[in-house]
Amino acid sequence: VFLPQRLRPLLDEEDPDRPVFVNNCPFPQQHLRGALEVLSREAFLRLRPGKGRPGLKGCKDSLGRAPTSREDRFLAACLERNGVDALDVNVLSATSCPPFPDAGFACTTGKAAFHPYREVWSWKACWGQATR
Fold first, then answer.
1. Alpha carbon distances (Å) from 44 to 12, 91, 104, 129
2. What is the rounded (10 degree) CA torsion for 43, 83, 71, 110?
3. Which of 76, 41, 74, 44 has the alpha carbon at shortest distance from 60?
4. First to last CA, the chain
5. For residue range 31-73, what is the model confidence (pLDDT) as tens digits?
6. How far apart are CA 81 and CA 76, in angstroms?
7. Which DSSP category does 59 fall into?
8. How far apart are CA 127 and CA 10, in angstroms?
9. Whether the Cβ atoms of residue 60 and residue 89 lie closer than 8 Å to each other
10. Rounded to an integer, what distance in angstroms lies between the CA atom of residue 63 and that of residue 37?
């Protein structure tokens, strides 16, 4: 469940030309989660090679190696390799991110995204709680 109107105010003060991605699980030993991947336009453009940056192709050597064997961790590592900064913004409530809520947790934290809600009925229930 994603509520973009909650994300925008958290990013309003950021320089739109700064190459950043949102580290949506900003806790020690945690990292970007694939449930919500937010990149600035400049961050996305840095995945092209140029100006001493390897681009996306320059990150192929880390494919399939821990800890970048997951798509979200690969993306974060590749962005950082290309000079993109992580912007720590606690926007996600997810079972994989501290405080590690149990599945089916209430969507009442005011966050911009909630994960996982894969069944239609659970997604609708979460949406209803989050938008009350």
1. 18, 20, 33, 33
2. -60
3. 74
4. 14
5. 899 999 999 999 999 999 988 889 999 998 887 776 666 888 8
6. 9
7. G
8. 20
9. no
10. 19
